[in-house]
Amino acid sequence: MTYVKRLAGREESNAHIASFRPSLSGVVADGFLFKECIMKVKAKGLALAMTLSMAGTSAWAAATRDEPIQPITAPRTTHPAKVELGKKLFFETRLSKSGFISCNSCHNLSMGGSDNLKTSIGDHWQQGPINAPTVLNSSLALAQFWDGRAPDLKAQAGGPIANPGEMAFTHALAIDVLQSIPGYVAEFKSVFGSGRVDIDKVTSAIAAFEETLVTPDSPFDKWLTGDDKALGARELAGYKLFKDSGCVACHNGPAVGGNSFQKMGVVAPYQATSPAGGRADVTGKDEDRFKFKVPTLRNVELTYPYFHDGEAATLEQAVDVMGRLQLGRKYSEDEIGKIVAFLKTLTGDQPLFTLPLLPPSSNSTPRPTPFD
Amino acid sequence: MTYVKRLAGREESNAHIASFRPSLSGVVADGFLFKECIMKVKAKGLALAMTLSMAGTSAWAAATRDEPIQPITAPRTTHPAKVELGKKLFFETRLSKSGFISCNSCHNLSMGGSDNLKTSIGDHWQQGPINAPTVLNSSLALAQFWDGRAPDLKAQAGGPIANPGEMAFTHALAIDVLQSIPGYVAEFKSVFGSGRVDIDKVTSAIAAFEETLVTPDSPFDKWLTGDDKALGARELAGYKLFKDSGCVACHNGPAVGGNSFQKMGVVAPYQATSPAGGRADVTGKDEDRFKFKVPTLRNVELTYPYFHDGEAATLEQAVDVMGRLQLGRKYSEDEIGKIVAFLKTLTGDQPLFTLPLLPPSSNSTPRPTPFD
After folding, report:
1. Interface membership of A55 toward B (CB under 8 Å)
2. How far is CA A65 from CA A58, A220, A227, in A?
């Protein structure tokens, strides 16, 4: 897995389209991962640098500033063939009853790992009850789903497949489909030592792929690790305000969030459009009502709209609401602009990979039934 | 654009999962295309061969056998930055009213450029009237759509965007969306010399990408160009039967079809489940009723189900129906098996590319309305 510098929307950035850097990686099915094949081109001089390293992931530089946010470390992939299988399954529409919906439908890796919709579209165009959180850096969260009902990515991955409002399938039927596809049987055998497909293997492979979906090397991370020029004055002022006014109390750590459950509407109540009860739906405790997992702010410029009900269309709206409802503070337009400028420095290098080719169904593969 | 050897389902093939070959390519936004970065690994010896060629597409070997089917030639890409923009637009869900459906939804490049459904799913889960044809090698066809109502890929590309049963948008609204996204404006300016987005530029870029989606170097093409060992005895027997019994009368040329309109049901009538009238819907002529563009048989093992109404679930069924209705011949089970073995040799190297990253919407970008 390699990463590509995202075309950023930062106010003070020098980034523009010509600086777009492609980073390429491929995985061969016997489990050997080409870690990096990074090609850099300078348009004028045609200077060409090519690196091929085949070892594990190089560690990102350790943090040198003592801040409540820490830089993201790229994951160490110990089983690249499992990651490659998980990537196929992440794009596998045949895990849905309709044959039309895959993990990537709602956690679109072309779009910040989200669908950029208020709430997602499920089987038969059902309207989902809650905003699809980004899959990017989700391995850093203390639990999965807005209410934390899944302890980890593996537990999460089985949920949407069998949810009648999402992929509307059953685990048993999904396994029947995969087991009937010779290309998958061979790949499960190669990865797990047995070609017998089961939901444990499926979700384990999907989770292994998702663990690689981290976004290191954002401008803010560069600043954290010592590059004074990585942030402009307005972005730094935004970060100072983010800290001083209290945002950082919940949005901290490597994921800038994702590590606690907090009540939505601390100072003033939030009028949610979603019926979701939050953490209370899991614990049954009344004090957990409207407590949600604090979302990561990594890549937040890509993961609009915001909040568990997707009701904030822009970052400016989200910052304004958070200030008033969580902190009891009415930010000025200038203050909001500064915080948003800071938030846009949290866009890191995006996972970039070849679109997987899925093995074809056999004659015995059960066919999808989208219109039943 | 580079190509990868598809994991084949051929009966006599030695191909298995360990021979899967990743081929990588990247395009930088200034228009410079890295044509090939092919890495081959032999698992045991760790032998490593890396090729980087930056010139145009290498020509495939010319046909050496005098046959009614000709090998596919890889396209010569003259404007790689336009191809790269077209690739983004092909994956762009914001070209649909819902923000959920892209070209790739129904012409899925992980699945042979098709959706593997009888008929496709459109906005609000509408059931499409006809089977989505593969986009692979579609540039070789004499016209686009089953009834040929679009003369070329550029004319086709605008259709689904504005079709109320498919992406359900309008060209004007789609252009408003793209024009509001700074990343697209910069890229249109880079490619076309002007950042003013219009439907002509959009469809031109999508067509440029689609023109690269050809699948050369199939086992049959290798045999055509002189490799006697590329086909097994049963596959060759299938090809001989394909020729001798008349299939080749319509399925010929480089695309093994796609170059004429023919009546579905020549010897006996076809009981279609689709209301489509075929070519008559375009010409208004009664003699064109139920005439459809002959589909390409390239990669046909990947593009199930078959026929314009998707009613043939397997290749065996399709061959049986074609024999009876088009040729007045009842193939034996053994004959069908041979023809199917030949058809599976038409699976070529699949286009392989990095999943594109789409530029984020701005605050002024109109939001999708999936549930209105």
Report:
1. no
2. 21, 11, 10
Q: Which two tokens stand for residue B16?
A: 């298995």
Type of residue numbered A230 = A
Half-sphere exposure of A13 (CA within 13 A, CB side): 21
Residue from B351, B332, B335, B301 nearest B13 by CA: B301
Cβ-based contacts under 8 A for chains A and B = 183
Question: Exposure of B176 by Cβ count < 10 A (0-12 exposed, 13-18 middle, 19+ buried)?
Answer: middle
* Chain B CB contacts of A127 below 8 Å: 370-371
Examine the residue annotation and report whether A166 is marked as an active-site residue of this protein. Answer: yes
* B 281-320 → A contacts, CB under 8 A: 301-302, 304-305, 313-314, 316
Chain A interface mutation, best of B90, B102, B110, highest count of A Cβ atoms under 10 Å: B110
SS3 A243: helix
Q: Annotated catalytic residue: which of A84, A166, A210, A301?
A: A166
Please tell me the distance in Å from B220's CA to the nearest CA on chain A. 19
Q: CA–CA distance from B119 to each of B113, B126, B312 (Å)?
A: 14, 10, 12
User: For A6-23, what is each residue's pLDDT tens digit?
Assistant: 544 665 443 333 333 333
pLDDT for B150-180, tens place per residue? 999 999 999 999 999 999 999 999 999 999 9
Q: What average pLDDT does the segment A87-114 reach?
A: 98
Q: Which two tokens stand for residue A24?
A: 């390429």
Contact B110 A354 (CB under 8 A): no
User: For the whole model, what pTM was predicted?
Assistant: 0.88
SS3 at position B224: helix
